[in-house]
Every structure is written in structure tokens, then in C-alpha cells.
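Troubleshooting entry. Yesterday's outputs looked truncated, so today I'm pasting the complete records for two proteins to confirm everything comes through intact. If either block looks cut off, that's the bug. Protein one:
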Amino acid sequence: MLNDTEVPTMMTEITIKRVKDNWIDEFSNLLDKVENKEFKKALSFYKENYFEGVSRFLVEPKTTGYEDLFTNNGFTDIYVDTYRNIGASFADWYAKSIGSLLKQQDVSGYNDIWEAAFAEEGRRIAGNRVTLVSGTAKATLKKELKRFMQDPEFMAMDERRQSRILRTRFNQYSNSQAKRLIRTEATNAANQGTMRSALDIYGKNELQKEWIAARDERVRSNHAAANGQIVDFDKKFLVGGEYLDRAGDPRGSAANVINCRCAIAPFPKQSDQLVDVLPPINPVPIIAETVKPNIRTNTSEIDFSKLTKKQLDDINKEAFEAQGVIVNSINSKSVASKKYQRVSENINKLLKEYNVSAPENTNIGIDISMLGGGKRTLGVVKRRLKLPNRNYPEGFNDYQLKEIYFGNKTPNNYGTKQMSKFKFDRHYSLHDEDKFDLYVSTHEFAHFISVEKMQSHRKFWDEFAKLSKEYYNEIDKYKYDSWTKVFIDGRERLTKIKDLNKLNDVAISHYAHTNNNELMAEAFTEYKLNKTPRKWAIKFGTLIDKYFKK
């Protein structure tokens, strides 16, 4: 027979079990309602900006003059509204359901506090996101308008037909991009709402939290495996090899966060203060409000080792387009997944560090491939010359970027060794052994940043020429002026090398001496991939940083 103290405890445990059983359904129903309201606002913003771009294009067909669209301020307002409204709705829902288990707790004055807190979180998240999101939208607009400009049949249509086709196309983009933005943030905002409410009602020392996976066929296997995992409120869940504070945690990888629909259920540990009556859900109304943005430029960390090729394609495309580089296609079919993960992480890191938005890189769409550039090349950056008496699209420049081949092979490591005793033949610059697979992508990225004939980078290349002259003057100290007979291992040889050991210590690489473009790329590769780059790699790398580092 149960005693008097065991009966309420048992009733509470039954009540909490019932709440947990219904949690994901109630959570999902409320999320669908509030998410839909925020989606409509985001959709309206996307359509307004895309359609304004269409109107300008119909007056004067071109792919420039759209920089004032998709402003960071406009996107920040969307993030602030989304976090404030969804977060406050879920905080109120929790307070009126699970929170009511605690006797004599009045949370009626918390709504204003919650709204302000979630609005600030929205501004913080926006600081990490808006530059990329805005850049993607602008790049999409330019890419599509360029594609239509190159279609003779479309350009021959009357303005009314052109307008209808363009609006239909950009309506589709508006829908997909708005949906992705809101869905990515909504789960995080909702779970922050319930957790903040629980924290204010119970205090973190009295709480634990449980991961509750979505109940549909789309749920990730790692998230399904995490279902039912319980930790203390201030601890993290282990999900797919990552430690997450909650579902939708922005510190998690894209594979763990994007489109996640899981819920976090915070529950009090102690049962002696609880009752077993739960009122129905009654979320607070959503109120829109304009908030001034607080722009930052940091980006969230991504665990590339957990991403599929398709996810890597999407992330790479967004990273390029965030700097205005329009990407027509990415070919990653022939590269191994592990290789692609490593190279993608390297490329994204470099894109965060360096400004590549020169007109020669951004005005015309490009193709990206993870293949080599041909039988004799591991990788290559292809550019186009502007020839006389030819018609080119608006914005086309001399040395306009066309294709980047980042390579699907790792070069032979003998290329980093000096083999001959009478000539300098170390082909590659020096870099750490564990980064040898990143050599090609880093080398080609340097060519992507700039090449010697780009008019927009004249000051850089003028200064580079002066530095390279100093470099070759030092190299020449270890060379003869003409072919000279020497005896090596008892044999007479002709050589121009006076001191091979010292030359090998100083020189960037044999390949670097091809021309200034290759000298720049080889020096940059050693500068980025060697823990202790040598003197000239540092000098050239510092010059590159001066002109191109963000």
C-alpha cells in the first residue's frame, strides 16, 4: 500500500510522462503556427527586393546596380522578429503548461522581459548570418538576370512577357530562400523559448532537459538515436558526435542543425512542489516591432566531416556567392567524400579570410570543379581575355574568371624534396605533411584571388614586382652567372648552382620561378600551410594580406 507522501509523487510522475508523450505533437503544432507567420514576413521581403530588381532590369537590362537591395538591415529585422515572436510564444506556452506544475508561481510580468531577451538573441544571430544571406540573394538575382540576358528568345519578347517570366522565377526563389531562413532559425528560437521560461520559473539547479525527436520519416538517424537523452539543464546533449545545448543550436554543424524539427523538454527534478493539472496551450499574440540592427561578421563553425557532397556543394556555393562570385555549377562527382570535406573546409576558411570580390571575379558566373584542369595539371584557374571586335556581356573584364578546378588528386610528396645534387628541382613549396592534400586547393585559391594582368589589382602587382626583384636578387647569390663545370661524386657536371643547400633553404620552389603568378601562388601556399613558413613566404604572404585580407 502507498503511503501519503508516495501518492502525490506518483501522480506527478504520471503527469510528466503524459506531458512528455504529447510534447512533440504540441510543440510541432505551435511551431507550425508561429513559423508560418514569420515565413510570410520573410517571403514578402524577398519578393519585394527580387521584384524591384526585375523592374530595374526591364528598364535597363544589366547585371549591375542592385547592391542596395537585400540590405543587411532588412534581414536583421527578420531575425529579430523571428526570435522575439517565436521565442516569446514558446516561453509563454511552457509557463502555462509545464510551468504551472509549480504552485504559486506568477509569470504574468515576464512577457516583456522575454521579448526583449529574444530580440537581442535575434540581433546576435543576425550578426553571424546576414552578410552571407544577403550575398546569396544578390548573387542569385545577378546570376538569373545574366542567364536571361544571354537567351536571345527571351530578349526578343515584349516587356509584359519578360516581366511575367521573371516574376514567376523569382517568386520560386523567394519561397525557397524564405522557407530555408525561417526553418533554420525557428527550431532554435522555439527551444530557446521553452528553456528560458523553464530557467526563469525553476532555476537551472532544479532542472533537467530531454531531447525529443520529431516523429516523421525526415528525422535524422542521429537525432532519432538521441531521442529520450536526458541531461542536467546546464549540460549538453551528445548528438551525432557533437555536443549541442539544444536542437537547432547554431554552434552545431549544418548537418545537425539545418531543418531540424526536434524539441527540448525541460522538466523540474524535484516533485514535492508539483501538482498534476495542466491548462491548455494559449500562446501570446505575435507583435511586430522595428529594432535597429547590430551587425557583426563572424560565421558559425561547421563540422565539414559530417556533411554529404550535396550539403558541401550548397555550403561552398553560398560561401562564394556571399562575396558576389556567381556560381553556375559545382562538379564534385569524381572526388572522394573525405577529400571533398577537407578541401571544402579549406576553401571556406580562405573565403572567410580573404576578399575575392574584384570585378574580374564577380561580374560573370563561373563553374567550379573538384577535378584537375587536364591530364598535365592538378588544378587550374581559367580566365578569359577581352578580344577586340567581339561582343561581350555587360560587366565583362579582361581576365574575367571563368572556371576554377580545385583538383581531385594529391600530388606526389617527392615534389617537396630536393632530389638532384647539381640543379634545383624541389617542385613544390614547403608545407606541413598533414596538409599536403590541401596544396592544390590553396595554390589555386591564390590564382583566384588575383593574377598579374588584372587591372583592379595594379597597385598590388606593382608592389609584388618590387618584392620579387629583391627575392631573385637573393636567389642569384647562390648561382653562377653562366654554366660552370663542377665535380660531383667524382663526375664532371655543368651547373648554374653555386650553393644548392643555401638555395634550397631560401627559394620558394622550382615551380614558383615560372612567373610572378606562380611565385605568388606558391608563396601563398607555404604561408598558409606551413606552421613555420620561411622568410620569403612570410614576406609575400604579408603583402597578400595587406591588400586582400579582410
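Protein two, checking that the full record survives here as well:
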Amino acid sequence: MDMDAIESIATTRKLSATDHAIITCDSNEVITSWDERAELTFGWRAKEACGQKIMYLLLPPAVDSIANLTLRDIISTSTENQSEQFNITKKVQHKDGSTFYAHILIFKVVENDSIIVLARNLTKQQRFLDKINISYHQQAILDNILKISLKPIALVNQFEQVLDYLFSIPDLKLLPQAALFLAEENSEKFTLKAKKGFVDQKSLHCRTLPQGMCKYGHSAKNQAFSLPSCTKAKSYKTCKYPDSHGHYCTPIKKGKKVLGVMCLYTQKGSSYGHTTVQLIDSVCNILAGMVENKEMDIQLVHLVHDLRSSINEIREEKKFSESIIQGLTHGLIVTDLDGNIHSYNGIAESIMSTFAPSLSGKNLAEVVGPEAAAEMLTTKPNASIENEQEITVSSPSGETKIIGYSSVARENALSRQVGCIISINDLTELKFVHKEMEKMNRLATVAEIASAVAHEVRNPLAGIKIMAQSIEGQSVSAEEQSECLSRIIKQVNRLNGLLTEFFSYARPAEPQPCATSLHEIIADTQPLITNKMVKNHIIFKENFENDIPLIFADPNQVQQVLLNLFLNAMDAIQQGGVIKLNTVHLKGRELKKHQQRQPGLLPRSSYVCLSVSDNGIGMAPEVREKVFEPFFTMKSTGTGLGLSIVYRTLQENNAVITVESKHKKGTTFTIYFSTEE
């Protein structure tokens, strides 16, 4: 019969082949198969066992009464013609001569008159039974020591009560002397913590010693029970003191960590057994638990103290944060991802009072409407108060408010977005004031322009009037009349040029923006003034950044702007000077720095910056402030509309121009061109 068939039978009969050695025999009880478990159980290898009589091989030398015992003697009681199971426990022999009890199952296979034997070593089970058969008396001892460990008294007092209780146990035959040592923190030394039976400290020679210096230290170092008398000498085989430190030296340990040593003294002539050592070890385990519990109690006290401190700090931080939020000059609303309002400050509630009397327990959509809420809950990666957006919200009563807001993501400890933090401002009144100021500025500008136009027109008209009066008097010759008419035409042309520039400022041409190269526009403009620059000994110095992106503007209008700035720089230099051109691509942190200095820059991802610098006469601060105003000029000729037209043209192309100048040191015009449509 092969092993698969045997395992099949074992499975059918609900036997575990992992615990049992499987042996098969023929009809003469001669072993025919012997598995690995059998080799481990009995020590015989398969080639040694096969061919042997099974009972001869397994049973120890038998007494006469069972000398010739066979398997068939055991199963002969069965008269049925089918496989039968027989269950016995027998003492069997290992190859090395040792004996042990085994649980044997015998199966008779009727079909081929063979026998299957399953055997299991019962040594472990017997040991387990010995362990669980510890006497009730020892269990009671441990229970009483456990009760002492639960008393709400100091650890030293618990130790002393445990030692007193051990003295009271007659079976241990202890002298009323004992000492208990605990390990010092971060050290291998042990310090005396509790003692009994010693008159004073001097009568106990070892009060602090490192591991291995005496028998109790040696016991701690080796983490093992030690019986013989110990000494204080480095070699515990020789003793400097006549008094021993104890007959039972047992380490108090938790896992691999030695917490201390308990030293007990026995009466003369007493002996110890396995159960005594086991009891003392169990007592030391309880003592280890007591030490650990006290350490945990101390740690718990510290933990509670730290927790209280942390709670107080959190409360203080919360109050501090709330006071900061309430002290903000703008409204703040905190929501979850669904728009449910979790917290807000008083200013936010005041701003939103037009739409809801209270924000508590509300969803943002209930306050400002679904569309406005959706916009306000949309966060941008680098949103800030400088990138504030505007939204117009109407209340059910028809009242309208303009709200400026910026939204940033609210994240948890795992950096996952759990909501939004929305900063809001009521811009309604501010917008109204701005409109009124713009209206007043426009009226004032119109008045200034009208005054400037009247002033500029008056002089040519006065000249025309004088010339016309001269012709009307008929006292001038034909040659003089021709001269007068020529002067009248010249003044009319002057008026026409003035009005042309005025209309260029008042109604600039519609720009045709497209993606274009700033460097190419500069290159196309420079030849237009080359002759004048050569004549005046003026040169260009260029510092262009490589690979700057294309700008989005009308190239023809940009060229007119650059031509105007170049001509102004040449007028400021007059003779022998330098015009410096510098281009740079602004983005990221560098762009943010410029946006902080120039509020007119829109929140775009990048700009191309062009600076035009000259080393001319410069401008005084009061002149610099008015340089872009229409009809303002410091030149003896000109209308004063050139830089006004430059400013207006760049504004129409979504560009920004600024000026910096110091009197007698030169002037720098800086233009920021957008790279986005």
C-alpha cells in the first residue's frame, strides 16, 4: 500500500498525519513503510526499520508476561470482516534506548490483510499536564502575592509585605532574612530597595553592586536562578565575607530586561525541587509586574500632566487664533468641501447680514446663491489677498453688494483638502466712491484739456486774425498779402497737427493684438533714429535675456511707443550719451516682488519687462509726477501729448508703464508686457 492510500485512509478516519508517525506492516507484522515522522519519533531511519518486526523494534525489553505480544494479539478480539481501529497507550523505546509513552492507533485492512499503525509521542502532553497540575497551595500563594501587588501603598512597602508573606510559608523553609535589589536607570548597577532580618545597612555587605560582581549580580547577568552562596569578589568562587548573600538568588525580569534580584535565605539542611524554583520564578514575575506597574503609574502621571499642559496650550492657541480671526479687518469664512459653514468672524457675518441674519449652520449657497457659492468655493493653488476677485450678489429684497474675495484650500494633517478658507471684503461703497472719483477726475481732466486746447488754439487763431485783418485793410501789397496767406496756412496746419494729436489721445486707434517678438520690434525701430543718434553721438547698449516668450500686443502701436521713448531719451541727453535697453522675463517670486511694487500689474502668470534708460538731465519729483498728464511738457516746442498717448496706448494693449528719474542723473521708463491673451 502506498503513502497516498495511507493518507487517504487517515483523512477518511479524521486522523492528523502531522502529529502521528505512519507505519505499515504486512500480514506477518513486518514493517513495509516508515515515514519521516516515524524517523523523528523513534530515531530509526526507514532503511533500518523496514523488514523488522514492529513490536520488536518499538517496545522496550519486555517482561515475561508480554514478551511475545503481537499486533494480532491486540486486534484478535475483532471478528468483523472490515477494517477496525484499536486505540492503546504503550511505553515505547527510542533508538537511543530512552523510553516514552506513545498513543498508538492500529488499523486492520481486511482487503489485503495488512496493518496500519499511527503513533504519537505523548512526552509534550505529559509535560503540559505536569504544568497544569501545579498544586492549589502554590496557586493560593501567588494569588495572595497578587493581592499585595494591588494594594494602594508604596512599592517598597509592597516588597516588604511580600517578603514577610514568603517567610510565613512553611514549605519553603526560609530564614527570616531577605533582600530585594532593583536596577538603576541607565546603569548595570543594582541598589537595595527592601530588606528583612537585617539590623542595619552595615549588616548587609552588598547594597550597590554591578552585575557579575557577586552571586546575586551573577544571577542577574545570566538571568538565571542561582542557589549556592554568593560572594562579593569578582570571582564568585572565592568569598571575602563569611556571610552569604542568599541561597536563592533569582532575577526579577520582564522579557530580556533584568529589573532586579531577590535574595532569600534557607534553613540548614533544606533542599529544593523544580516546583520550588518554579514558584520563586513566578513570585519574581509578579514582582516584575509590580515594578513595571509602578513605572507605568509614574509615566501615566507624567502623561496626564503633559496632556493637561497640551490641552491648556491648545486652548490658549485656540483663543489666540479666535482673537486674531475676530480682529481681522476683513471677513473670514471657513467651509467644508460641500460649502457648509464651520466658522466665521464678526465682520463676515456683518457683510453677509444683507443676505442672511446669521451664518451659523448655513450652507454658503443658502447665503449668496448657488452660482456665487460655486465661484467662491473654487480655490487656486497660489491664491492670496493680492489676487482678490470680485462678485456681485443680490439679496431677495433686491439689494446688491459687490464682494471681493479670495479662496484658499483648507487642508488636514495629511495635506488633503477638506474645505475652503474664504476672505471677503464689502467693496460696494468703495466701488461707488471710486466711480464718483473717476467721474470727478474725468470732469477735471476735461476741464484741463479744454483749457490746454483753448490755450494752444488761441495763439494760432490770434496769428490768423492779425493776418486776416492785414489783408482786409487793403493797405498791403500783393507780396505782403501772399506772405500773410502763407502764415495763415501755417497756423491752420499747426492747428490741424494739434487736433490730430489730441484725437490720437482722446480716441486711440483700436489695437490689433497678436503674439509678437519684442526684440524684433526693437530691431525694427532702431533704424528709424539711427541718423539722429549718430549726429548727436548717442549709442544703444542692450542687455537682452535669451529665449524670452512672445508678448501679446499690437506690434505697430508698440513700435510707436518705443519711437516716442527713444526720441524723448535723445532730447534729454542732447549730445554724447547712452540709451540702455534691458529685457527680462518675470515669473514666480520675482514677478510677485514687482507686483507688490506696481499694483497695476494684473495677476498673470508672467510678464516681459522692458526698461529704457538714459543718462540725460533727468526730472525733478514734481515733474515726474505729471509726466503722463496730457498737455504737460517742459520743452519749448511740442504739445505735451506724447507721453500721454504712450500711456494710453500701452493701457489699451494691457501693458503697464512706470517711470523713475533723478534730476541730472537720468530717467528709466519700465514697460510690463503681458505674455497672455
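Both blocks look complete. Sanity check on protein two: Residues 274-326 form the longest helix (53 residues).
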